[in-house]
């Protein structure tokens, strides 16, 4: 069995592959695979003609981010110990994969790890997705060192450390292959968005740690598949967040969180309506409707492994949105 494979999920991403594969091939040591979600553009022809050394897994339909990785990794699960899941719009740096794998191999109690993720467009600035390490507030809202909601910091070296985090970004994350498959991978019902946070939550509940290593840097374009300001992304984030919290919290805790989130997010829907952004208001309402419709089929997660101490961060931040929007705290240090 080999140590690691770099796995890139692709769906109609020919232009992204042309732009970012050169850095991956130049700076990577481990095998590179592309899992294709039944693309209809010229992606596969481009790979076959320009990068015949890259191995491909061709799926029968678009399974989304969650299902696509589940299907793809299942086909090579017996060949590698670790997988680096890499978005197709990420530029990597010299020694990046060796740095990640060397660290996680030396820390056997970690199931996932992410590097520092900076913006490809502004390379002195953190990226929205993952930044300097991801956390969850007391109501399940994700935030990062270097990015609180839409407030994004410059990289001033503050997050060059190595720490435990609540979640690793799906833009670039290492996963322990055995743990990934024991936990059934990503939740395919999520399709896209929040699935890596849900997986990391389940990993932590099962006794594993999630790490961040600031000594390794990559640059993420972001929005290549779905713009973060789109109604569709808002819908998926809200719907999947509710499912994630319901799955991983106790019934009483979920009820308290649901009341607060429902109030905040329905107020946001009203605000969108007043601003004439009907599609965003509808996205909020549709997310709550669809969560209620599927709630009975969402299984509570109970760790199957015995004898592990539960590893859960007890964060000091209760409601990051309140601190960001009302109290004006725009950086991680201010929280």
From TrEMBL:
Among Pfam families, the record links this protein to: Glycos_transf_2
Q: Which residues does the UniProt record annotate as the domain Glycosyltransferase 2-like?
A: 6-115
Among InterPro entries, the record links this protein to: Glyco_trans_2-like (IPR001173), Nucleotide-diphossugar_trans (IPR029044)
Q: Name one GO molecular function term.
A: glycosyltransferase activity
Keywords attached to this entry: Glycosyltransferase, Transferase
Instruction: Give the PANTHER family listed for this entry.
Output: GALACTOFURANOSYLTRANSFERASE GLFT2, RHAMNOSYLTRANSFERASE WBBL
The family line of this record is: Belongs to the glycosyltransferase 2 family.
Instruction: Please state what the protein is called.
Output: Glycosyltransferase 2-like domain-containing protein
Q: Which organism is it from?
A: Algoriphagus antarcticus
């Amino acid at each position: 069995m080999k140590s690691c494979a770099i796995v890139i999920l692709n769906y109609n991403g020919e232009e992204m592959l042309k732009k970012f594969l050169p850095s991956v091939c130049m700076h990577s040591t481990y095998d590179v695979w592309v899992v294709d979600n039944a693309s209809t553009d010229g992606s596969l022809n481009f790979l076959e003609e320009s990068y015949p050394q890259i191995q491909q897994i061709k799926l029968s339909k678009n399974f989304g981010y969650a299902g696509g990785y589940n299907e793809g990794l299942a086909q090579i699960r017996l060949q590698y110990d670790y997988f680096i899941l890499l978005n197709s719009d990420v530029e990597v740096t010299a020694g990046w994969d060796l740095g990640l794998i060397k660290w996680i191999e030396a820390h056997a109690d970690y199931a996932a790890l992410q590097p520092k993720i900076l913006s490809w467009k502004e390379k002195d600035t953190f990226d929205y997705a993952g930044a300097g390490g991801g956390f969850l507030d007391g109501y399940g809202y994700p935030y990062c060192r270097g990015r609180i909601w839409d407030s994004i910091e410059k990289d001033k070296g503050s997050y060059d450390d190595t720490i435990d985090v609540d979640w690793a970004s799906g833009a670039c994350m290492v996963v322990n292959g055995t743990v990934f498959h024991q936990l059934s991978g990503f939740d395919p019902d999520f399709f896209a968005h929040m699935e890596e946070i849900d997986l990391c939550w389940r990993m932590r509940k099962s006794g594993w740690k999630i790490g961040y290593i600031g000594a390794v840097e990559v640059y993420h374009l972001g929005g290549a598949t779905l713009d973060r300001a789109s109604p569709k992304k808002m819908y998926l984030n809200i719907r999947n967040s509710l499912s994630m919290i319901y799955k991983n919290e106790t019934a009483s805790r979920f009820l308290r969180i649901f009341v607060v989130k429902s109030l905040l997010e329905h107020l946001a829907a009203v605000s969108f309506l007043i601003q004439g952004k009907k599609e965003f208001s509808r996205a909020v309402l549709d997310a709550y409707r669809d969560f209620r419709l599927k709630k009975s089929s969402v299984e509570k997660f109970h760790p199957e492994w015995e004898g592990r101490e539960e590893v859960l961060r007890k964060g000091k931040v209760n409601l990051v949105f309140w601190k960001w929007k009302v109290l004006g705290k725009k950086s991680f240090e201010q929280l």
